Structure formats: structure tokens, C-alpha cells
Amino acid sequence: MIFQLSEIIGQDKAKELLRRAVDRRRMSHAFLFKGPTGVGKKTLAQVFAAYINCHARAQEEPCGECPSCRKFASGSHPDFLLIEPEGAAIKIDQVRALKKALAFPPLEAQYRTVLLAEVHTMRREAANSLLKTLEEPPPGTVLILTGDEASGILPTILSRCQTIPFFPLPKAELAAHLRLEAELDAESAATLAALAEGSLGRARLLQKKGLLPLRRRIIETLLGLAPDSPAAVSPILELAETTAKLKEDLPELLDLLKTWFHDLLLAATGGGDRVSNRDLLPFFAGAGQRWSDTALSERLALFAAAQKQLNRNCNPAAVCEVLFFALL
């Protein structure tokens, strides 16, 4: 478990704002950590809770040794409360239970800390129930909310919190971290960091799901087949059957394939230094000879059509068959 602010990748502005609030004794009773998914909002909230309750902070970090730090490290501190979505959303019953728990003073911490994760999922009735607590929390209580910048967070919540901005992680730092964490070579780590768009959480999911090898296999197969050739039928049907088995991960795979065609357009227009699929660079020359800029644009449009069909619950295997034949 990460237990030092300095161990969190990037987010220097967020860390500085939080440290400054503590040092100047102007700490808000409610923070909103707002930014993209998977960039460290929840992790920083947990470390910050340990930081403000540490009995012997040294060098602007939790000491890691005092009784409070040891309890935070083991996930057993009685004055740290975590509220996460049940299913798709934080529900009003969860907020009501929280309000009952806050009726009692902290057991031992200087600051009882409540982490409400993914508040952009909160339904309006649950948010309205939380407003009074956000405005005037019980003494010794700090609320930390995390929310996705791309999703709707109710203005009534925004107005009651000090917003701490989070940003996509620098790709070079993320790639370096992935090389150590996942034992990847430099090229694979750079590709994963770029495709994850600066999100460590998404990079971990892509690695765990093993979608990159399948993306490569599909691209190699497409480039090795001639359009309108009878020999293409069997390999395409096999690929369609394999990809259909991904179920909920199928849209993610299609996004990865779409990114590759977008990279081809970038490379064709002089933007080769900005491509994400670094591990597929050996295929760019052949693909550039096969598809014109117009053909690439047409193929990019095919992915939107495929996604619409999936959203309408069309047969995934049939959707993939049509898409892969059209991509040839």
C-alpha cells in the first residue's frame, strides 16, 4: 500500500494545495478531488487522511510508525469511513447511514475522515440529503469527495467543497512506473501509458485484461489478408468469434483498434511522434501503403457504427464480422 505523498505519481499541485492548507491551519471541512479516472484521487485521499492524523509528521509525510499511521496502513482506523457506490451509484440509504455515524464524536483521531468516492454517481436525492453535512459537518470531521471531471457533479455539491484539481499523469512517469510494477519492456510500457491516456488505473486494467496482444493479432491478421479474397473468410470469422467472447470488454478493444487507425492518420500527416501504438510501429509502413487518408477516415467511421449496434444489443459476433470485413 502507498503510504507516502511522495510515492504518488504526479499530482504535485494537489499535494502542494493540501500541504499548504494544513500548514496554514486553513483546512477546509470538505474537499472535492476532481479529475480523470485512475489518476490517484482515492489513493491521495487515503494518504492525506493518515497525514493529517499522524502523531509525528516528519518532512511533510506521515511518519508511518505512530499508532495512527499503523492503523491507517492496515486499513483498520476506526475514524476513517469509506463510502463507495453500491452498484452504479451512491444511494440515499448510504448517506443516511453516514449521517447517523457522524452523530458520534471521533473515537481517537484528531480528524475523522470520510471518503465519498465517485460522487458523480450520486443520485439527486442522495446528494440533497448530504448537503447539510457538507455545509456544517460535525466538529473534527473532514469530508473528501472524489469525482470524475467528465461526469456531472451537482452544482450544490461543488459550491460546498474546496476543489482540488487532478490531471492525467505524465506519460513518461507513468511508463516508468509500469516498467517496474508490471515488469514491462520500455516499448510496451510506453504504449500502455499512451493508450491509457495518463490513467494508471486504466493502464492496469488494460494490462490485466490482456487486450493489447489481441489488438496486435487482429491488426496483423487484417494486414495479412487481401480484400474480397475467399481466403479471408475463415480468419475473419475466427477473429469475430474470439472478440465476441470479450462481452463487456469488447467496446474497450474496439476503442484500441480505433486508436490504431487514428495513429495511421497522424503518421500520414506528419504526426508520427504523437502516435500511441508505439509497439506497432513496424506495421505502419505497410498500412500506409494499403490505405489512403480517405480510406482510413472511412474505417474510423466504422467503429462508431459498430458501437451503436452493440448499444442496441445486436449480436456481438455479427457486429465484429461486419466490422472486420469492412476494415480489410
Describe the 3D structure.
The structure is a single chain. This protein has a five-stranded parallel β-sheet with strand order 2-3-4-1-5, with helices on both faces. The chain is elongated. The chain folds into three domains: 161 residues, P-loop containing nucleotide triphosphate hydrolases (Rossmann fold, 3-Layer(aba) Sandwich); 40 residues; 118 residues. By secondary structure, it is of the alpha/beta class.
**Straight-line N-to-C gap:** 46 Å
Percentage of residues in strands: 5-15%
Unreliable stretches:
none
Mean pLDDT: 92
Number of domains: 3
Assigned CATH class of the largest domain? Alpha Beta
Principal-axis shape equals elongated
Helix content: 40-55%
Looking at the overall shape, the CATH architecture of the largest domain is 3-Layer(aba) Sandwich
Main sheet specs: 5 strands, parallel
* Annotated CATH homologous superfamily of the largest domain: P-loop containing nucleotide triphosphate hydrolases
Structural class: alpha/beta
Q: What is the H-and-E element order?
A: HEHHEHEHEHEHHHHHHHHH
Number of DSSP strand runs: 5
Radius of gyration: 24 Å
The side-by-side strand order for the widest beta sheet comes to 2-3-4-1-5
